[in-house]
Design brief:
Blueprint lengths: L9 H16 L3 E8 L7 H4 L8 E6 L2 E2 L6 H12 L3 E7 L4 E7 L13 E7 L8 E6 L4 H4 L7 E5 L8 H9 L6 E7 L4 E7 L5 E2 L5 E2 L7 E4 L16 E2 L49 E3 L2 E9 L4 E6 L10 E4 L5 E2 L22 E2 L1
Parallel strand pairs: 10-14
Antiparallel strand pairs: 1-2, 1-6, 2-3, 2-4, 4-5, 6-20, 7-8, 7-13, 8-9, 9-10, 11-12, 15-16, 15-19, 16-17, 17-18
Length: about 350
Amino acid sequence: MGNADSDLSSTELEVIEEAAAEILTKRPYGHRILGIQENSPCSYETIKQDIVPFFDFIVEANGVSCDKDDGSFVQIIQDCVRQKKELNLKIFNIKNKQIRTISCQPNMDWGGEGALGLTIKFDFIADIQDHCIHVLDVTNHSPAEKAGLDPYNDYILGTPHYVMRDSDDLNELVSENMDTMIELFVYSQTNDEVRRVEIIPSLQWFDSNANPVTSKGSLGCGVGHGYLHRLPTKTLHSTGKGRVEDYLTLTTKGKNKESKSTSHTDSPENDPDAETSGNNNGVNVSDVLHEVNTPLGKGEIHGERGLNKSIVVKLDWGLDHNATAMALFKKDHVSLIPHEAEKEEKSKVVSVDIDISPQKV
């Protein structure tokens, strides 16, 4: 399973590798798939192909690149539903670094949420080898053991909102969510499978009879990061596989709150809980998402990275050899440029709290 390249010619493989290299260097953004609903238009039961949560990115839809979160992908889905057209998706897998194509029929009548039955998040496409944390020893009666973490076989990949860059990110996440449930995406090299794990960090441990036991940390497991703790080479030839869930609950860090993203659009008028700017000027993030001023000039927002939610900006100016200029900024160093409707306020720079959340499509 997942070895889609077995019947391809050397020329076809070369084309795939070149396309993958272009994605990683020139178009390193797409819609990360976080969950697939059972019996949905994109489920294995329907399309007879696996989609792998966390590892798979949608990078193209019906020939249109998905490297910008400008609403075009959602519009393409809506058009397919309205016209009853087939949707062709190019999927990039960050584990085996290959592109494959799947075809599905978006519709709103299959009995679940959204037209595709997917939960997605616009995100940065990074090499998984640089963003995984190896689970080492697991202590008895610990939160890690209760969550089912498998010592030396499991790798922590991230949460529905963050990719883990290193063990410091995990430590920060745990320290900010003591005694609060955290959702983690975990990869098992034994099963070649990505699963969602719920874990509650705590310094108060209990055995199976509810008797207190001495705690050894808030998770009770050792972790490793770096060259010696990368995914084994033998696992990099497949896409992996995922667990189908009828409904994927996505929590906001520290709040245990379901994502309020709509199945049909990321437009704020359809989301009563969409956050507006903190300066009370009524400008919503979604309204002016890609027009920003930065210390390095104007650019477009392409997502956020890390636990501190640094803002990823594609700058208007490029580098040598047609390379794209990308930069990370703190939130207070990025300001939005109003749309035409706010031109009378153009002398003012609007500062907002930017939040790019998962959504169902």
